Amino acid sequence: MSTGVDPVIVVARWQVRSGSVEGVLALVEALRDKSLAEPGCLAYECFRSTDAPDTLLLLERYRDAAAIEAHRASEHYQALVVDRILPMLADRRVELLRAQQD
User: Fold this and answer.
1) 5, 41, 52, 63, 100 from 56: Cα distances, Å
2) Alpha-carbon distance 4 to 67, whole Å?
3) Which CATH number covers residue 57?
4) Residue 80 region, left (φ>0) first, then alpha (ψ -120 to 50), else beta?
5) For labeling, which of 11, 42, 62, 73 is most exposed (least CB within 10 Å)?
6) Per the structure, how many domains does the chain have?
7) What is the mean pLDDT of residues 37-64?
8) Is residue 1 part of a domain?
């Protein structure tokens, strides 16, 4: 049975520049709080690799594609990610996933 909701999972893998991981983690904490306050954000988690401590994996769940667009257009995303975090990253890969329904 369809609920009319088409959740999207964001999987973001960030390779942080040497010496910047603690600064990025502090910004991600603020970003997480503000993102979870968005009506379309259902979950937001950040993981740090045990094998490569400068690698972070963010898993985010949004109600639908429109909620992701609203997130990316938000003032906090622009201020924290675009203006502050992106300059501290050596590499960034983002995938959008949808659950497969049986």
Assistant:
1) 28, 20, 9, 23, 26
2) 14
3) 3.30.70.100
4) alpha
5) 73
6) 1
7) 97
8) no
- For the chain, the 3-state helix, strand and coil shares in percent, each to the nearest 5, are 40, 35, 25
Length of the chain: 102
Q: CA 81, CA 44: separation in Å to the nearest integer?
A: 14
Per-residue pLDDT of 2-16, as tens digits, reads 455 789 999 999 999
d(CA 47, CA 13): 10
35: left (phi over 0), alpha (psi -120 to 50) or beta: alpha
For residue 67, with 0-12 CB atoms within 10 Å meaning exposed, 13-18 middle and 19 or more buried, which class applies? buried
The edge-to-edge listing of strands for the beta sheet with 41-48 is 41-48, 55-62, 8-16, 89-98
pTM for this entry = 0.89
Which tokens sit at 95?
């995938």
